[in-house]
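Model it.
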Amino acid sequence: MSPGAKRPGRRAAGRAARETTRAATGSGAPARGAAKRARGTAALPADSVAARQRRAVQILAELDRAYPDATLELIFSNPLELLVATILAAQCTDERVNAVTADLFKRYRSAEDYARAEPAALEAAIHSTGFYRAKARSLMSMGRALVERHGGVVPDSAAALEALPGVGRKTANVVLGNAFGVPAIAVDTHVFRVSQRLGLAGSEDADEIHDQLCAVLPRAQWTRATHLLTLHGRRTCLARRPECGRCAVRSRCPWPDKTA
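Modeled.
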């Protein structure tokens, strides 16, 4: 869903493919299929930023009532665990990641543990999350960078997080928003799709979607908005067959392909 000069999905899909190959979950750019399914909503809404800001507040309030339980589904107890879990979540369900990390976090407790990990052992431990070789390389490189640059401590700034191997904007923002309490929008495939259907953003590039959402969503609600849009995308505003008939924000949704 992106500005129009490029072929639909090429920029976002290209970034996602590159990051997945390196197990870099960071940018969160959706796959080519997701971009194509959302095609038609990729133009920036014509209404003013002020109008989108007002509508955004109303949409968030209604989604908050519909999904009071909306939260991050990855299980973690500290910033390092969340960073690892988010990297593993690339092309994998949160449920599967949680099953894997239940044991992984008992064996790898520090950045040093990942930095010194035996590749075959780490690959075996995360095998079921997919792309396990690339993810293992990313985790080991990330661990070394944390040790060398930050004394083994996960930094709490976007710039420092995004400078880590395997970490892009999406991953950094998941960690900032959920481990450090810093307001942050993480554009996953659901936020990418739902924000455009709701007319809050319009682009084929995940970074542009992020910036557009930052302009219309209240900063204090950025992390909460991510959870609400993600859960709405998982439960109602599905990629292939959205359940528009039971959508909590149907009356505020400008998407032309709404179903009955």
